[in-house]
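Quick one: structure for this chain?
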Amino acid sequence: MPFSPHRSGRAHRARMLRSTSLDSGVAPTPTPTPSASIASPSGFAFSGPYAPTISRVGKGSASTFSTDYSEATRKARIAPVTTFYVRLSTGNNNNDGLSAATAFRSLRLAVKMGVDTGQPFTVNYEAALPTAATPIVYRDSSTQARSGQATNNATWGDCWRSTDITQDCVLEPSVAGGVAYNAYTAISPNYAASSDTNTYVATVTSTTRYSQIYDFANLDRNNAPRPLAKLIAAPADAANPWPEINALWTALNGVTDAGQVPAYGLGVVWTDVANNKIYVRTFNNRAPDANLLHGSLTGNLPAGINATPTKAVRAYIEGLRFIGGSAGGYAAFHLYAAGGFRHQFDFVRCGFHGGVGAGALQVDGSAATDGSDTIAVGCYASNALFDGFNYHQACSAIELGCTSDWNGWESGLANNGTTCHETCRVIRVSGSYRQNQDRSLHDVHQAMSWNLGCESSTRRGQDGAEQSAAFATGRPSTSDNSTIWLDACAVLNGAGGAPQYPTESYTSATLRYANLSFVPTAGPGTGTVSAYEA
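Got it. Here's what it folds into:
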C-alpha cells in the first residue's frame, strides 16, 4: 500500500475530530482527498535514485501530506536467493537456518551466513507486535556456541553487530508489522538498596559496560522502552549523591521544583566512574528488575557497514529496533560509504536508540563525494549522545513519518533531532521531533532540505544562539550557505515550553517558507528568510 504518514500533534488531533462514531447520530465529515502531486521548490534538486511523489491533503497551515512510497515495491527490488530463519525462542545455532523449524538463534549468525553466500539473501527473524506484553530482544550478552558445521564455528551473541552487510539483503519480521530489539547489552548488575529510599546502587568492575539503561516498564509513544535520564554533572559529594539524583527525578516527573514543571516521566541514572558504581532511581520508584535493559558501548561495532566497502549494497530492513552503540564514535546503526560506492538502504518501522557517534542513525562517507541513499519510513531515533538522524558528506535521505526524541546528552550546541551536513539533500515528510537537547531540525554547510508537515515540540537545552530553535539553517560562517524549505510545518508547545526561536537562519544560509501558522525569523542570525509559492 502507498505510505500515508501518521501525524502526531495538530494534524493528528484534527484527524481525530473528523473520525466520528457510526452510532453517534452525527454524520462524519468526509476526509479531504489528496490534491495532485506537488512539485519540489525551485532551487531544490534531490540527488537520490528514488524521489517520492508527494500529495497535499487540505490547505494552508492545516495541510497534511501523503506519498507514493510502496513497501512491497522497494522490498521486491532486492530479489533474494536464499532465506535464513532466526527464532530466538526455539532456534539453535547448530541448525542450518534454512527453515523456521531449523532456525538459528543468533541474528548476527544469520547475517554472516547470508553474506557468505555471495548472493542477495533474506533473514526472517522472530518478532512480535509492538503492543505485545513480552517483546523479542536479541541481546549481545546472551550467547550460544555453533560447532560441528563447515563454516563459522564460534560462540555467537544473539544480536547483530560487528558483521558488515556486503551483499544485498532483506531483514524482515516473522509477523506482519512485527518488531524486535537488537540490543548491544551488558548483563544486568546486582542492585542493592541504598540509604536513600528510592535509589538503588550496584558495584561493577567497569562502568563503561553500563552506559545506557532502558526501561521496558516505561514505554514511549512508539511502544519502545524509554531511557533513564543521565545525571551528567557529578554530584557535589559522590558518597551522598541523593540531592542531585532526586532533584533531576523531581524535575522529570511533573513535580514543581525550582520553577521546572516538565512531565517527562523518566527514571534517573548516575554513573560514578571513579568508584565503579551505578545509581538508579526508576520513574515509578520500583526496585531495578528484569525490565531494565543495560546497553553497552564497548567491545563491538554497530550493525550496518563500518569498513571500507568493495561494492555498493542495497538493503531493506523492517521492524528492527537497534539499542546501544560502540566505543570509537559509532551509532546504534552506522552506514559508511567510500570509493564511489553508494549504498541504498530502506528502513521501515525501525528504531535507533543510543550510541556515541554523530547520531543514533549515522550515515556518512570517507570523502566529500561519498554518500549513501537512505529512506526511513515510520522510524524513530532516540537517546543518542548527539543527534537523532545524522547525515554527512554527499548523502541523500528521505524521512517519512519519522520521530526523533530525547537526543543529546552533553553540553554541546549541536544535539539535534535530525540534521544533514556538507552537500546532503534531504526530504522530510510529517516528521515529529521532540524533547531533543538543542534544535529539532538543523541543516548546515551546503546542505539542502525540503520539509513538509513536520512538527517541533520542546527542547531541553538552555536558551541561546545556535541552541534552542525549532528549525534552523546554517552556522555563523560565511562559507555556510545551506537552504531549508518549510511547508506547513508547526512549532508546538510541550513539556519544557516552546523553543526560544521558532526558526534560525545564519549569515549566508537561507530559510524559505510557505503555509506556516507562525512568522519565521532569522532569530539571532543574519541569514535570509523569505516566502515561496508552494
